[in-house]
Write the structure tokens for this entry.
Amino acid sequence: MPEIAAVTICSSSKFYGTAQLAEAAFRDLGITVYTPRYDFNEQHVRVDEPDKIRLTRDFLAKIATSDAIFVVANGGYAGVSVCIEVGYAVGQGKLVLFSEQPAEFALRALVDAVVPVENIAAGMRSVTGSEATRSAP
């Protein structure tokens, strides 16, 4: 598995605090990190349809330039937008990492590795040190 130079963090807006912890951990490893727009936290601001369309397209472009995505899935939760991002990443051949095992069974087939946020440094050494393969459905 080639070294991961860039990762995009995918997260529900309700988990942005955890996403920022993951961001710091990846940056500490010297990895380029692309993140959601934290200022568009849907718990605090209303995001209308044109904004959501623009944000989605911009975010998919971030995934396209990354080697991997890291999904913050507190309690196994991944919302609709995150599911779209995971599908896009898989279609682009990106490595798919989750912070916790997803609750949605269909997503589990797309996960290359589960790497808890508090273990990102060790988890990344493990993932990049051996071939990661997708689980069988």
Notes: Residues 130-137 have pLDDT under 50 and may be disordered.
